[in-house]
Amino acid sequence: MPQLSTRHLLGIKDLTPNDIQLILETATQFKDVINRPIKKVPSLRDITIANVFFENSTRTRLSFELAEKRLSADVVNFSASGSSVKKGETLLDTVNNILAMKVDMIVMRHSSPGSPHYLSSRIPANVVNAGDGTHEHPTQALLDSFSMREKLGGDLAGKRIAIIGDITHSRVALSNIFCLQKQGADVMVCGPTTLIPKHMAALGVRVSHDVREALQWCDVANVLRIQLERQQIKYFPSLREYSLYFGISRQMLDELDRPIVLMHPGPINRGVELTSDAADSPHSIILDQVENGVAVRMAVLYLLAQE
Ligand code: NCD
Q1: Rounded to the nearest whole angstrom, what is the distance from the C-alpha of residue 172 to the centroid of ligand 1?
Q2: pTM of the predicted protein model
């Protein structure tokens, strides 16, 4: 049986193109499973997974929990608010205490970039990164690629993907760039100069500061939220001005010469990066992304458990 080249999912950077292919193909089978009347398989019946979240989350935490339950794993949930982290316990102590209760896998979200990497070299359990600060969010990129392939009806080689918004502070942006490039896609990032890191061109992506140009160029627009909670200084004058220059409306999408697929990882700030009529338009596959997230996470957990 084909296996992943790694026993942790820390970032897309560490995955081979074959790993990505294997995860996406396995996810196709799990998407069939979760659309059956009985949405459950016994694959992880003997495995216990802890979802350890030090940062807020709606979709990602619920999606992992459902993926785990649909694989018949035992699940425990930890969130930092209300825990002994507030009493001064270290990250490693917290996780080692959870592992002492015979937990096999840790799914973690943390505001510090690199924290899942740090843990993975110090604990025996498999570690899955569910978002580490501004760094990576590998399962989001995988579910985004799965959704693009499903919508475009084939692989992503040569497809044009524009990632639009706060590239500097978004872990979704970096994971998407790595994931798309490993599948041979042509990637553009678009946003205000202040929200695009200087090293972007060195990654081999196109850079644009004109949202209309980006929309006209791409097959898929993956639109990101302004991460105000990670911005210590002002990167643009006001949200109103941001949406004036970089906001996307349904009319802008309807007026393009060719079809476009609109994506967003959520949470959407309606009226900032997308108008409501764009988010809810037929161009949008935003809720398909959420559905696919469960199948993709089932694939990741299933493959990591096969050792
Ligand atoms: C993203 C995240 O947390 O990085 N959301 C998600 O996981 N679906 C994007 C965001 O917060 O804007």
Answers
A1: 7
A2: 0.97
pLDDT band at 233 (very low <50, low <70, confident <90, very high): confident
**Are 87 and 143 members of one domain?**
no
Ligand 1 within 6 A of 135 CB? no
CB atoms within 10 A of CB 245: 12
Span 24-40, pLDDT tens digits: 999 999 999 999 999 99
Judge if 86 and 176 occupy the same domain.
Answer: no
Cβ(230) – ligand 1 distance below 6 Å: no
126 and 248 inside one domain:
no
The verdict on 252 and 120 lying in the same domain is: no
Q: Is the CB of 171 under 6 A from ligand 1?
A: yes
Beta-bridge partner residues of 161: 187, 220
25's CB contacts (< 8 A; 6+ apart) are: none
| Residue 297 Cβ < 6 Å to ligand 1 | no
| Residues 248 and 145 reside in one and the same domain | yes
Q: Could you give the number of structural domains in the chain?
A: 2
Q: Quick one: 58 and 145 in the same domain?
A: no
Tell me the pLDDT of the chain averaged across its residues: 96
- Evaluate the CA torsion angle 270, 275, 278, 281 in order and state its sign: positive
pLDDT in tens, 124-150: 999 999 999 999 999 999 999 999 999
